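User: Second chain of the day. Same drill as before.
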Amino acid sequence: MSPRAPEETQRIREERQAQILAAAIQLFAEKGFHDTKVSEIAGRAGVSQGTVYWYFDSKEALFEAAFMSQFEMLVQPLYAIAADQARSAANKLMDIAEASIGLFAKNTELVFVMLQIMATQEVAGIIAHDFRDYYDEFKVILTPLFEELGDPDPAATTSMYIAVLDGLMLQCLLGPNWFDRDRVLAQIKEKFNLKEE
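Assistant: Same format as last time:
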């Protein structure tokens, strides 16, 4: 048997790590951080517990990596909308709100884990710096959009806009029909003055 090519070895490592991360996010969503055992994550991922520790130094490191990998996938489409030079500021903000609702509804496991993070001080401490960095970055991206719209206090309005998105994230956990999407988007457009000139 000939040795694997370095590219093949790297591909296998990435696949195995992705399996572990997917199993971890599922179990953290189902059982919470404290009630999830590394052995359970290994079992669900189809690897040994030693393999999990080969990739991650601790359960906390695994939790951070699992959460952040999923969270990055969630926010990247929103960043792409904000960076789109072909859209007006109002269109970007409306499209971000609409995309957020869709992303939250499709990723309820991640939303549930986010709630656990916010509700548990010890768990929040594991990724607080990462989470804060994303919120700060999102504010930096959104505030100029409200400035462009002529908002008298774009920083405060950005915080309110993010709070509305966070609230919608929570409501998405209650089910797909918990709120009328079109009416909510119409209210966002009205309340944040996102009408096209």
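The first helix runs from residue 6 to 31.

User: Great, on to the next one.
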